[in-house]
Design brief:
With 412 residues, the protein is of the alpha/beta class. The protein has 2 domains: 113 residues, 2-Layer Sandwich (Enolase-like, domain 1); 268 residues, Enolase-like C-terminal domain (TIM Barrel).
């Protein structure tokens, strides 16, 4: 039958960090071909799932897994994804790697959409509706734009990992993207005016040599005001604190402080930032182990902004359920690279929606040009997406795909 798998071949290619990563193609019996790739997930923290070195992953797929998928119907997603998940039953997938199974899973869903003669986002939505959460595609997610990187991703003096913005959700995706691109360019002019040298980092944002987190906020604010935007109305700050990075011995170490501060001190700092900069999204404001901080943040800012769990949740269902039960966050982040299969990613987002949490789909600091994530975000009707600024091809690919989808659906 033309809908069966003829062959599945994995190979290595380079990702945006210059690292060899995993890619592959699936060929159907009638000759139609689909492609996919998986980035290496850059993190100095221990990940919940291991990613296998590309060469080993290629060997596992081509020699052990692909032969077992020949003449199989790729649309049997629930069964195949369950089988892929069970191949490696170690807690962290340290034998075969989550990237190995995720690549195969992505190829299967792309092949399924090809067989069905559907756009990928339509096909993914159909599966999500049937098995996880019933919804219609009524809107485009709102994009976040990281403008300055610190922490793990950028300047050493900036403790916070991302200083970004999000425009009003009343804008279309195209309008928000245009403004995001303009903000990125205008920010460069501010750096030039202030004689601040900066380059562009791995995630497309600037990595200037600044002395404090407030310096970064002030420079972005200057670019915002030059455009005539009103903070808190037209545009909001979206901050990824990634507090694990500067949390040691139950204390937080920040460039603004002469010494260490505790949970109460961090809350006071966020109150000051909110008064001056009106953040809408505050991501990972406390260390994973500082649960009281998370609870206090939701209680203090929950009616004004969204407290986003990324490192707190690591895209895992048990952590999501705990966070909802203890009211630790109001916005749940999904990264596909932290899921062994698309089915598992669906389950995470379906549960988040049942728990009445807002959802965001994010790409990683290191990426490939694969635009699967854009279709996925629209299919599950994520409230937000974080692809980075429209700089560097791996980010532009996702944004351009979103523009295409919005045009096809005639949606904002």
């Amino acid at each position: 039958m033309s809908s069966l798998i003829k062959s599945l071949i994995a190979y290595s290619e380079y990702d945006s960090g210059g690292n060899l990563t995993l890619a592959g193609k699936l060929v159907l019996a009638d000759g139609r071909v689909v492609f996919a790739s998986i980035p290496n997930h850059l993190s100095k923290n221990k990940l919940p799932l291991e990613l296998l070195e590309a060469g080993k992953a290629v060997k596992y797929i081509n020699e052990l897994i692909a032969p077992k998928l020949q003449n199989v119907n790729p649309q049997d997603h629930q069964k195949i994804d369950a089988w892929l998940d069970k191949i490696d039953q170690t807690p962290n997938k340290q034998i075969i790697g989550a990237n190995t199974t995720l690549l195969i899973s992505k190829l299967l869903y792309r092949a399924g959409a090809t067989i069905a003669g559907m756009e990928l986002y339509q096909y993914l939505r159909q599966i999500f509706n049937t098995h996880f959460y019933n919804l219609e595609i009524k809107k485009m997610p709102t994009p976040l734009f990281n403008l300055i990187s610190g922490g793990n991703h950028g300047s050493a003096n900036l403790n916070f990992q991302e200083f970004g913005v999000v425009f009003s959700s009343s804008l279309s995706y195209a309008e928000a993207l245009e403004r995001g691109a303009n903000m990125h360019r205008d920010l460069e002019k501010v750096f030039q005016y202030r004689n601040i040298y900066t380059g562009v980092g791995i995630d497309g944002a600037y990595v200037p040599n600044l002395s404090s987190n407030f310096d970064a906020l002030e420079i972005i604010k200057e670019a915002i005001l030059k455009n005539g935007y009103k903070i808190g109305l037209d545009i909001f700050f979206a901050l990824d604190i990634a507090a694990n990075f500067f949390y040691k011995g139950a204390k937080y170490y920040l460039s603004e402080e002469l010494g260490a501060i505790d949970t109460k001190g961090m809350l006071e700092l966020y109150e000051k930032i909110f008064r001056e900069y009106r953040f809408l999204i505050l991501e990972d404001p406390f260390a994973d182990s500082d649960l009281n901080g998370w609870k206090e943040a939701v209680a203090k800012f929950g009616e004004k902004s969204l407290i986003m769990g990324d490192d707190l949740l690591t895209s895992l269902l048990p952590k999501l359920d705990r966070a909802a039960k203890d009211n630790l966050c109001s916005l749940a982040d999904l990264k596909l690279t932290l899921s062994p299969t698309i089915w598992k990613a669906f389950a995470f987002l379906g549960q988040a929606k049942k728990l009445l949490l807002k959802t965001i789909v994010s790409q990683t600091a290191i990426e490939t040009n694969d635009d699967f994530l854009a279709d996925f975000a629209v299919a599950v009707q994520a409230d937000y997406v974080k692809f980075g600024p429209p700089q560097r091809g791996e980010r532009v690919a996702k944004h351009n795909r979103m523009l295409t989808i919005a045009t096809q659906l005639k949606l904002k």
